[in-house]
Amino acid sequence: MRYCARCLYPENAKPTIIFDDDDGICSGCKYHESRQNLEIDWVKREQIFRQLLSEARAEAQKRGNIYDCIIPVSGGKDSHYQVYLLKEKYGMNPLLVTFNHIFNTKSGVKNLENLVAKSGCDLVRVTANPKSVKKIARFMLETVGDITWHYHAGIRTVPFQVAVEKNIPLIVWGEHGFAELTGVVSLEDFVEFTKWTRKEHDMRGYEPEDLIKKSGGTISLQDLAPYVYPSDEAIERTGVKGIYISNFFYWDAKQHAEKMIEKWGFGTISYKRERSFNLYSKIEDHANDVHDYLKYLKFGYGRATDDASMEIRHGRMSREQGVPLVEQYDHVEPETLETYLDFLDLTKEAFYQMVEPMRDQLIWEKKNNQWQVKDSIIHHLKTEYTEPARLELVSDRTFSKNNKSLYYNVENPPEKIGDSAFDMFDPQFMIL
What we know:
Radius of gyration: 21 Å
Largest sheet: 3 strands, parallel
Number of domains: 2
Structural class: mainly alpha
């Protein structure tokens, strides 16, 4: 298995990653590097963004609509930053839309409440019913190894349903996640949301009608109402499109989190997580540990690889510092696995049997009836490419004292917040 000479990603990273044969650097690192390229005119891009918002305001006024755009939100640090930026800097009046997938953390619920209170924005929340979620999550676990298909389907569909219903032509997302991680698109593309990427990237190639057909009718249209995309005629009539803020501004999630902690009181967690050292990202998503563990079982890497690679790209961590974090976190079976197996009426044995045929045999092999990884980043600490690929470290290091509330470090642990929602891990999720 090849690993990036700069960060920690393997060549089987998903959805797609490409290695440069000349320097051994992955497309995700190249994408990040392109964001710092002096040839990119961020001033011009901000002007384009400003113009898009101006057009949206004018169109809203023309339609007699008090809302000039929709911002899909979860209550996370990106949601806070997106709403803050559009509301405070650009004077927009967005309608916030939340798809409640029911797998919520207490900290996520608190932060969503905080976002609504601090922003002064109206919120539409569509909540999936647990019985349908159970059927969908179990079916998609068995089919593609994912219990959170309904997350991605919902947050990529419900905002368009609301846009059509309320005649709002602009939806604003934060970062293009796949671009930031693996560089699946170029910054020059000014990529916008499309129904195709929603299906192929976010929904594993499955539309609701596919679930009905492949489940043999076990899953019905009634179960799938939040995931049915509006008709082409409705989309054309509304003129709705989706854009990503990260196309127009330099993107650093850490800086955004710090700003939102200062300005709007976004809350980070203070306890040690099982699958990552990051204390501010994905903290609203209770099922993320299991979702990420499934990624590890299939492809041999997990969230610590994601988070450490991003720190390396920002120059806050060396590659050598990232490797032990991958070793510490990526393989850990999360405590919440039992919670979701109980919810899905599955035994642990049945769970592992479901996942077995999905393991990527480029990285996994079975010996003495036990699955083992054939390779790991530990065996690729140094190659002919690693030194030339190395980035200069910045003064703002990941595990510095100033960052102890953002990254867990046993030698410099975060201080307690004084609220159990942020200070205590809860293996059970909140439906509302």
